[in-house]
Amino acid sequence: MGKVIYVPGAFESTFTHIDGRVEKINWWEHDKVWRHKYLLISAGAYNLTDYNLRERMRIPDDVIVIGDSGGFQQATRNFNLNPISVLRWQEKNCDIGVILDRPPYKLRDDNGRHPILEKSTSNFNKYLEITYDNARVMYDNRENKRLKLYGVIQGSNKHEIETWYDKINGIGDWDGWAIAPKPPGDLLSLAMYLKFIEENSINRLHIFLSTTIDAFMLVAYINSNYLDIDITMDSVSFLMAEKFGKIVSPITYKFTDLFSRKYIGDKDIKWVCDCPWCTSYRDDLDEYVKTFDINFYYIINMHNLYKLVTFVDMVNEYAKDYDLFVDIVKQVASNPNNVLSVIDRYDKGFWNKDIFSF
User: Fold this and answer.
1) What angle do CA 181, 128, 174 make, to 5 degrees?
2) For residues 157 and 354, what is the distance between their CA atoms, to the nearest angstrom?
3) Contact 202, 231 (CB under 8 A)
4) What predicted TM-score, i.e. pTM, was given to this entire model?
5) Collapsing DSSP states into helix, strand and coil, what is residue 69?
6) Cis preceding-peptide flag for 183 (omega within 30 of 0)
7) Could you give the maximum distance between any two Cα atoms of the chain, in Å?
8) Which CA distances in Å does 327 have to 288, 319, 331?
9) pLDDT in tens, 59-114
10) Which of 20, 61, 62, 71 is the most buried (most CB within 10 A)?
11) In angstroms, rounded to a whole number, what is the distance separating the alpha carbons of residues 80 and 317?
Protein backbone atom coordinates (compact mmCIF):
# COMPACT_ATOMS: atom_id res chain seq x y z
CA MET A 1 0.00 0.00 0.00
CA GLY A 2 1.23 3.46 -0.89
CA LYS A 3 1.47 6.16 1.75
CA VAL A 4 2.15 9.86 2.22
CA ILE A 5 5.49 10.61 3.92
CA TYR A 6 6.38 13.84 5.71
CA VAL A 7 9.91 14.88 4.68
CA PRO A 8 11.46 17.58 6.90
CA GLY A 9 13.74 20.11 5.30
CA ALA A 10 17.22 20.21 6.85
CA PHE A 11 19.35 23.32 7.14
CA GLU A 12 22.73 22.37 8.55
CA SER A 13 23.05 25.38 10.84
CA THR A 14 19.75 24.53 12.56
CA PHE A 15 20.94 21.11 13.68
CA THR A 16 24.53 21.63 14.78
CA HIS A 17 24.00 23.54 18.03
CA ILE A 18 26.02 22.07 20.89
CA ASP A 19 26.59 23.88 24.17
CA GLY A 20 27.51 21.01 26.48
CA ARG A 21 24.02 20.51 27.87
CA VAL A 22 22.00 19.24 24.94
CA GLU A 23 23.45 16.98 22.27
CA LYS A 24 23.33 17.84 18.60
CA ILE A 25 19.63 17.93 17.70
CA ASN A 26 18.50 15.99 14.65
CA TRP A 27 16.22 13.12 13.73
CA TRP A 28 18.37 10.97 11.47
CA GLU A 29 21.24 9.59 13.56
CA HIS A 30 20.97 6.13 15.11
CA ASP A 31 21.42 7.30 18.70
CA LYS A 32 18.54 9.79 18.76
CA VAL A 33 15.54 9.29 21.01
CA TRP A 34 13.38 9.06 17.90
CA ARG A 35 14.36 8.64 14.25
CA HIS A 36 12.76 9.58 10.97
CA LYS A 37 14.57 8.26 7.91
CA TYR A 38 13.81 11.10 5.50
CA LEU A 39 15.12 14.60 4.96
CA LEU A 40 15.36 17.16 2.18
CA ILE A 41 18.31 19.41 1.37
CA SER A 42 18.37 22.07 -1.32
CA ALA A 43 21.13 23.03 -3.74
CA GLY A 44 19.96 26.61 -3.22
CA ALA A 45 21.00 26.50 0.44
CA TYR A 46 24.30 24.62 0.35
CA ASN A 47 27.74 24.85 -1.24
CA LEU A 48 27.58 22.76 -4.43
CA THR A 49 31.26 21.87 -4.15
CA ASP A 50 30.59 20.21 -0.79
CA TYR A 51 30.61 16.56 -1.79
CA ASN A 52 30.97 15.36 1.82
CA LEU A 53 27.82 16.97 3.17
CA ARG A 54 26.20 13.66 3.99
CA GLU A 55 29.26 12.46 5.90
CA ARG A 56 29.70 15.76 7.70
CA MET A 57 26.07 15.80 8.82
CA ARG A 58 26.46 12.16 9.91
CA ILE A 59 23.53 10.95 7.81
CA PRO A 60 23.38 7.12 7.82
CA ASP A 61 22.95 5.09 4.65
CA ASP A 62 19.43 3.99 5.62
CA VAL A 63 18.16 7.59 5.51
CA ILE A 64 16.54 8.79 2.28
CA VAL A 65 17.93 12.20 1.32
CA ILE A 66 16.01 14.17 -1.31
CA GLY A 67 18.04 16.83 -3.10
CA ASP A 68 16.06 19.79 -4.36
CA SER A 69 17.76 21.48 -7.30
CA GLY A 70 17.32 25.05 -6.04
CA GLY A 71 15.11 26.05 -8.98
CA PHE A 72 12.79 27.96 -6.66
CA GLN A 73 15.68 30.02 -5.28
CA GLN A 74 17.01 30.57 -8.78
CA ALA A 75 13.66 31.95 -9.88
CA THR A 76 13.02 34.13 -6.86
CA ARG A 77 16.48 35.18 -5.64
CA ASN A 78 18.42 35.44 -8.89
CA PHE A 79 20.67 32.50 -8.05
CA ASN A 80 22.86 31.29 -10.91
CA LEU A 81 22.91 27.48 -10.72
CA ASN A 82 24.52 25.13 -13.20
CA PRO A 83 22.70 21.83 -13.95
CA ILE A 84 25.91 19.77 -13.99
CA SER A 85 27.06 21.24 -10.65
CA VAL A 86 23.65 20.51 -9.15
CA LEU A 87 23.68 16.96 -10.52
CA ARG A 88 27.16 16.16 -9.17
CA TRP A 89 26.20 17.54 -5.74
CA GLN A 90 23.04 15.38 -5.77
CA GLU A 91 24.97 12.29 -6.85
CA LYS A 92 27.39 12.67 -3.93
CA ASN A 93 24.89 13.51 -1.21
CA CYS A 94 21.40 12.36 -2.17
CA ASP A 95 19.26 9.30 -2.89
CA ILE A 96 16.71 11.26 -4.93
CA GLY A 97 17.49 14.33 -7.02
CA VAL A 98 15.14 16.77 -8.76
CA ILE A 99 16.04 18.37 -12.09
CA LEU A 100 16.99 22.05 -12.19
CA ASP A 101 13.79 23.63 -13.46
CA ARG A 102 13.01 27.27 -14.12
CA PRO A 103 9.57 27.65 -12.53
CA PRO A 104 7.20 29.98 -14.44
CA TYR A 105 7.29 32.73 -11.83
CA LYS A 106 7.78 36.44 -11.79
CA LEU A 107 8.50 38.53 -8.72
CA ARG A 108 5.95 40.79 -7.12
CA ASP A 109 6.66 44.48 -6.80
CA ASP A 110 6.56 44.28 -2.98
CA ASN A 111 10.32 43.90 -2.57
CA GLY A 112 10.40 40.87 -4.85
CA ARG A 113 9.87 38.42 -2.03
CA HIS A 114 6.80 36.46 -3.11
CA PRO A 115 6.74 34.50 -6.39
CA ILE A 116 3.59 34.36 -8.48
CA LEU A 117 2.85 32.52 -11.70
CA GLU A 118 3.57 34.22 -14.99
CA LYS A 119 0.41 34.92 -16.97
CA SER A 120 2.20 35.30 -20.29
CA THR A 121 2.23 32.23 -22.55
CA SER A 122 5.47 33.42 -24.13
CA ASN A 123 7.18 33.46 -20.73
CA PHE A 124 5.72 30.06 -19.86
CA ASN A 125 7.22 28.62 -23.04
CA LYS A 126 10.51 30.42 -22.41
CA TYR A 127 10.87 28.89 -18.94
CA LEU A 128 9.81 25.48 -20.23
CA GLU A 129 12.62 25.61 -22.80
CA ILE A 130 15.14 26.56 -20.09
CA THR A 131 13.92 23.67 -17.95
CA TYR A 132 14.09 21.30 -20.92
CA ASP A 133 17.70 22.25 -21.65
CA ASN A 134 18.70 21.76 -18.00
CA ALA A 135 16.84 18.45 -17.78
CA ARG A 136 18.40 17.18 -20.99
CA VAL A 137 21.89 17.97 -19.69
CA MET A 138 21.25 16.27 -16.35
CA TYR A 139 19.64 13.20 -17.92
CA ASP A 140 22.50 12.71 -20.38
CA ASN A 141 25.32 13.26 -17.87
CA ARG A 142 24.37 11.02 -14.95
CA GLU A 143 27.34 9.13 -13.50
CA ASN A 144 25.84 7.66 -10.34
CA LYS A 145 22.92 5.44 -11.36
CA ARG A 146 22.05 4.94 -7.69
CA LEU A 147 20.59 8.44 -7.69
CA LYS A 148 16.92 8.45 -8.64
CA LEU A 149 16.40 11.51 -10.84
CA TYR A 150 12.96 13.12 -10.88
CA GLY A 151 11.45 15.32 -13.55
CA VAL A 152 9.39 18.36 -12.56
CA ILE A 153 5.88 19.35 -13.68
CA GLN A 154 4.78 23.00 -13.69
CA GLY A 155 1.65 24.81 -14.86
CA SER A 156 -1.39 26.75 -13.70
CA ASN A 157 -4.06 24.76 -15.57
CA LYS A 158 -4.55 21.39 -17.23
CA HIS A 159 -3.27 22.51 -20.62
CA GLU A 160 -0.05 23.97 -19.21
CA ILE A 161 0.55 20.93 -17.03
CA GLU A 162 0.11 18.61 -20.00
CA THR A 163 2.38 20.76 -22.19
CA TRP A 164 5.14 20.89 -19.57
CA TYR A 165 4.91 17.18 -18.76
CA ASP A 166 4.95 16.07 -22.41
CA LYS A 167 8.05 18.17 -23.13
CA ILE A 168 10.09 16.95 -20.15
CA ASN A 169 8.81 13.37 -20.38
CA GLY A 170 10.02 13.23 -23.96
CA ILE A 171 13.64 13.32 -22.77
CA GLY A 172 13.57 9.80 -21.35
CA ASP A 173 12.44 7.56 -18.50
CA TRP A 174 12.55 9.57 -15.30
CA ASP A 175 12.63 7.73 -11.99
CA GLY A 176 9.77 9.83 -10.64
CA TRP A 177 8.19 13.28 -10.76
CA ALA A 178 7.92 16.34 -8.54
CA ILE A 179 5.16 18.94 -8.48
CA ALA A 180 4.83 22.33 -6.80
CA PRO A 181 1.16 23.44 -6.99
CA LYS A 182 0.53 27.16 -6.79
CA PRO A 183 -0.53 29.09 -4.86
CA PRO A 184 1.09 27.10 -2.03
CA GLY A 185 -1.58 25.47 0.09
CA ASP A 186 -4.29 25.84 -2.55
CA LEU A 187 -6.17 22.55 -2.33
CA LEU A 188 -7.93 22.85 -5.69
CA SER A 189 -4.62 23.33 -7.48
CA LEU A 190 -3.14 20.42 -5.54
CA ALA A 191 -6.06 18.17 -6.48
CA MET A 192 -5.70 19.20 -10.13
CA TYR A 193 -2.10 18.02 -10.16
CA LEU A 194 -3.00 14.77 -8.40
CA LYS A 195 -5.73 14.06 -10.97
CA PHE A 196 -3.08 14.47 -13.67
CA ILE A 197 -0.78 12.11 -11.76
CA GLU A 198 -3.58 9.55 -11.58
CA GLU A 199 -4.44 9.81 -15.28
CA ASN A 200 -0.81 9.36 -16.31
CA SER A 201 -0.13 6.43 -13.95
CA ILE A 202 2.87 8.11 -12.34
CA ASN A 203 4.12 5.86 -9.56
CA ARG A 204 6.71 7.98 -7.72
CA LEU A 205 5.88 11.52 -6.62
CA HIS A 206 7.30 14.33 -4.54
CA ILE A 207 5.23 17.40 -3.64
CA PHE A 208 6.88 20.73 -2.85
CA LEU A 209 5.41 23.54 -0.73
CA SER A 210 1.94 22.07 -0.01
CA THR A 211 2.62 21.49 3.66
CA THR A 212 -0.49 22.49 5.60
CA ILE A 213 -2.38 19.96 7.69
CA ASP A 214 -5.29 20.35 5.25
CA ALA A 215 -3.03 19.52 2.29
CA PHE A 216 -1.64 16.42 3.98
CA MET A 217 -5.16 15.16 4.66
CA LEU A 218 -6.29 15.80 1.08
CA VAL A 219 -3.27 14.03 -0.41
CA ALA A 220 -3.66 11.07 1.97
CA TYR A 221 -7.31 10.64 0.96
CA ILE A 222 -6.68 10.84 -2.79
CA ASN A 223 -3.66 8.56 -2.52
CA SER A 224 -5.47 5.97 -0.43
CA ASN A 225 -8.49 5.85 -2.73
CA TYR A 226 -7.03 6.50 -6.20
CA LEU A 227 -3.23 6.51 -6.53
CA ASP A 228 -1.84 3.96 -4.06
CA ILE A 229 1.77 5.14 -4.42
CA ASP A 230 4.44 6.47 -2.06
CA ILE A 231 4.25 10.27 -2.01
CA THR A 232 6.85 12.39 -0.24
CA MET A 233 5.93 15.92 0.85
CA ASP A 234 8.65 18.22 2.18
CA SER A 235 8.10 20.84 4.83
CA VAL A 236 9.90 23.10 7.29
CA SER A 237 6.71 23.81 9.25
CA PHE A 238 8.10 21.89 12.22
CA LEU A 239 10.54 24.79 12.77
CA MET A 240 7.66 27.04 13.86
CA ALA A 241 8.80 26.98 17.49
CA GLU A 242 12.02 28.85 16.84
CA LYS A 243 10.62 31.15 14.16
CA PHE A 244 7.13 31.99 15.38
CA GLY A 245 6.73 30.57 18.86
CA LYS A 246 4.34 27.85 17.72
CA ILE A 247 3.90 24.28 18.94
CA VAL A 248 1.93 21.40 17.49
CA SER A 249 -0.66 20.61 20.13
CA PRO A 250 -0.13 17.14 21.64
CA ILE A 251 -3.91 16.74 21.54
CA THR A 252 -5.33 18.49 18.46
CA TYR A 253 -2.23 18.44 16.18
CA LYS A 254 -2.91 22.09 15.38
CA PHE A 255 -0.23 24.77 15.69
CA THR A 256 -0.91 26.94 18.69
CA ASP A 257 0.85 29.64 20.70
CA LEU A 258 3.79 28.07 22.50
CA PHE A 259 3.53 30.56 25.35
CA SER A 260 -0.16 30.17 26.14
CA ARG A 261 -1.03 29.00 29.65
CA LYS A 262 -2.09 25.70 28.15
CA TYR A 263 1.61 24.79 27.97
CA ILE A 264 3.46 27.38 30.03
CA GLY A 265 1.90 28.99 33.07
CA ASP A 266 3.34 29.63 36.50
CA LYS A 267 6.88 28.43 37.08
CA ASP A 268 5.58 25.53 39.17
CA ILE A 269 3.57 24.08 36.26
CA LYS A 270 5.44 21.20 34.64
CA TRP A 271 5.80 20.57 30.93
CA VAL A 272 3.17 18.08 29.74
CA CYS A 273 3.73 15.96 26.64
CA ASP A 274 4.54 12.27 26.31
CA CYS A 275 6.30 12.37 22.91
CA PRO A 276 9.84 10.86 22.89
CA TRP A 277 11.55 14.26 22.74
CA CYS A 278 9.58 15.88 25.53
CA THR A 279 9.85 12.75 27.68
CA SER A 280 13.62 12.46 27.22
CA TYR A 281 14.27 16.14 27.90
CA ARG A 282 11.51 16.76 30.45
CA ASP A 283 13.83 18.06 33.18
CA ASP A 284 15.63 20.27 30.68
CA LEU A 285 12.34 21.64 29.37
CA ASP A 286 11.13 22.48 32.85
CA GLU A 287 14.33 24.47 33.34
CA TYR A 288 14.67 26.00 29.86
CA VAL A 289 11.09 27.26 29.80
CA LYS A 290 11.85 29.63 32.64
CA THR A 291 14.50 31.46 30.64
CA PHE A 292 13.42 30.60 27.07
CA ASP A 293 16.82 29.05 26.51
CA ILE A 294 17.65 28.45 22.82
CA ASN A 295 17.77 24.70 23.48
CA PHE A 296 14.11 24.92 24.46
CA TYR A 297 13.18 25.93 20.92
CA TYR A 298 15.33 23.19 19.38
CA ILE A 299 13.63 20.52 21.46
CA ILE A 300 10.15 21.85 20.66
CA ASN A 301 11.04 21.84 16.97
CA MET A 302 11.72 18.11 17.34
CA HIS A 303 8.44 17.72 19.24
CA ASN A 304 6.70 19.41 16.32
CA LEU A 305 8.39 17.12 13.83
CA TYR A 306 7.42 14.00 15.75
CA LYS A 307 3.80 15.11 16.02
CA LEU A 308 3.56 16.01 12.32
CA VAL A 309 5.13 12.74 11.15
CA THR A 310 2.88 10.67 13.39
CA PHE A 311 -0.14 12.72 12.31
CA VAL A 312 0.55 12.00 8.64
CA ASP A 313 1.03 8.30 9.46
CA MET A 314 -2.30 8.32 11.28
CA VAL A 315 -4.11 10.07 8.43
CA ASN A 316 -2.78 7.46 5.98
CA GLU A 317 -4.76 4.89 7.96
CA TYR A 318 -7.86 7.00 8.55
CA ALA A 319 -8.14 7.82 4.84
CA LYS A 320 -9.17 4.23 4.15
CA ASP A 321 -12.40 4.70 6.10
CA TYR A 322 -14.43 7.62 4.71
CA ASP A 323 -16.62 8.23 7.76
CA LEU A 324 -13.69 8.11 10.16
CA PHE A 325 -11.65 10.32 7.85
CA VAL A 326 -14.42 12.94 7.70
CA ASP A 327 -14.56 13.00 11.49
CA ILE A 328 -10.83 13.67 11.68
CA VAL A 329 -11.05 16.41 9.03
CA LYS A 330 -13.80 18.14 10.99
CA GLN A 331 -11.75 18.01 14.17
CA VAL A 332 -8.31 18.99 12.86
CA ALA A 333 -8.50 20.82 9.51
CA SER A 334 -8.19 24.59 9.52
CA ASN A 335 -10.93 24.72 6.87
CA PRO A 336 -12.87 21.42 6.99
CA ASN A 337 -15.48 22.53 4.44
CA ASN A 338 -12.80 23.33 1.88
CA VAL A 339 -11.06 19.97 2.35
CA LEU A 340 -14.32 18.04 2.03
CA SER A 341 -15.58 20.05 -0.95
CA VAL A 342 -12.36 19.40 -2.91
CA ILE A 343 -12.58 15.71 -2.02
CA ASP A 344 -16.19 15.64 -3.20
CA ARG A 345 -15.16 17.24 -6.47
CA TYR A 346 -12.37 14.72 -6.95
CA ASP A 347 -14.72 11.83 -6.22
CA LYS A 348 -17.10 13.14 -8.91
CA GLY A 349 -14.43 13.22 -11.62
CA PHE A 350 -12.85 16.61 -10.97
CA TRP A 351 -12.78 17.76 -14.61
CA ASN A 352 -16.58 18.02 -14.66
CA LYS A 353 -16.15 21.64 -13.61
CA ASP A 354 -14.01 24.30 -15.19
CA ILE A 355 -10.48 24.81 -13.88
CA PHE A 356 -9.50 28.44 -13.88
CA SER A 357 -5.96 29.75 -14.14
CA PHE A 358 -4.76 31.68 -11.11
Assistant:
1) 75
2) 10
3) no
4) 0.90
5) coil
6) yes
7) 64
8) 37, 11, 6
9) 999 999 999 998 877 766 667 889 999 999 999 999 999 999 998 876 655 555 55
10) 71
11) 43
